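#onboarding

Welcome to the new folks! Below is a worked example of what a typical request in this channel looks like: someone posts a single protein sequence, and someone else replies with the predicted structure as tokens. Don't worry about understanding the tokens yet, we'll cover that in week two.

Example request:
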Amino acid sequence: LGGWFEALLRCSAGELVKNDAHFKRFQTKYRRRREGKTDYRARKRLITQDKNKYNTPKYRMIVRTSNRYVTCQIAHSTIKGDMILSQAHSKELLKYGLPGHIGLKNWTACYATGLLLARRTLKKLGLDAIYEGQSEVDGEDYSVEDVDDKPRPFSVCLDVGLATTSTGAKVFGALKGALDGGLRIPHSVRRWPAGEKDTIDSELLRKYIFAGHVGEYMEVMEEDDEEGFKTMFAKYIENDVTADNMEETWQEVYNKIRASPAQVITKKTKDQKRKTKKAQKLSAPQRQDRVAQKIASHLAKLDQ
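Example response:
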């Protein structure tokens, strides 16, 4: 019988067969798919623009979290690649009154970074005075409304990448911050902390915005395990941040963000010439002699 029939029998027996025909038709996936960095099915739907909009940029708010920080960007795609309109990084919160590296990746830091991105973007576009957003944080859902005889609100879509969009996820903290900052983003409240399909717990959401959940855990840790508390919250203790003044600390950060959200670009200094010269490469006899000298020096120390 032919080879194809033999392969069919092997497949029916549960054996995985990869013959020449399989490898000839194999298509290599995109590099960022192979690296597990991009979901191209989601990306296609985020960047595809209607043809009757004549190449109008379709902006999206990119939220990415690492083990230490949060990064938010406003970008649109072109044939050459993604173009960044504005960006904000949670490390910048130190410039806005956050005392030390405390919680630069938690839910509250995501909210603050999203707020900073929104105010910075509107400032850059000249819309910050028209759309001030939710100045008094109360935990309620907020969507910016059009102003008569003024430009429409700046609209973006949320891009969470490969992050899991579970209830209470940190990416939705950045979403809430951007909404309160004055951006228009299509959204639902069901994935916010303790959110349901059409309703939210505004008091709980406000507690998350001002890091009340962190303050509660600090109090529990201090009562149950004092040594663990001192280790886990060492940076908080060092900068005199407690559960009592947690809300005041973050409120001050939010006030400073609204006061001056613009990014300060520092001038790059010219590259200075190297002061230290690179060591000259040794030849084989020189290296052997160097090793012999080290051995002799070591033996002399042992004899002493």
